[in-house]
Write a structure and sequence with these properties.
Elements: E1 7-12, E2 19-25, H1 40-69, H2 74-94, H3 108-116
Antiparallel strand pairs: 1-2
Helix pairs in contact: 1-2
């Protein structure tokens, strides 16, 4: 048989009376039975970190727009604080990516302030 064919299974019957018989199984198929490393936890961590970056960007942009709406040059003064608050919000999401518990940043007053926004 061709090298692309790994296994040929014949299914006989229909409904509940089905029966599957393996007619051909290649010898190379045994090599593929080895356990591949599972990267589920790593993938989940990467997903959370990417989500944290998106949250930081969206939050910083939204806060910048709100500062600009006030008019004048107030956005220049508020921008560093907006970036810190956006980063804090992103760190909350990034903590989910860690396999161990990260230390919390800031005090409880800061978290209460974020809940009001």
């Amino acid at each position: 048989m061709d090298k692309l064919v790994r296994r040929v299974t014949v299914v006989q019957g229909s409904g509940e009376n089905r029966q599957a018989n393996v007619v051909y199984k290649s010898e190379d198929d045994e090599d593929e039975d080895l356990d591949m490393p599972r990267f589920n936890k790593l993938e989940r961590s990467v997903r959370h970190l990417l989500k944290a970056q998106v949250i930081a960007a969206q939050e910083a942009y939204q806060r910048h727009l709100e500062s600009v709406e006030k008019g004048g040059n107030s956005w220049l003064v508020e921008d560093p604080f907006n970036m810190m608050k956006a980063r804090r919000k992103a760190m909350k999401e990034a903590r989910k990516a860690s396999p161990f518990k990260l230390m919390s940043f800031g005090s409880d007053d800061d978290e209460d302030e974020d809940k009001e926004d």
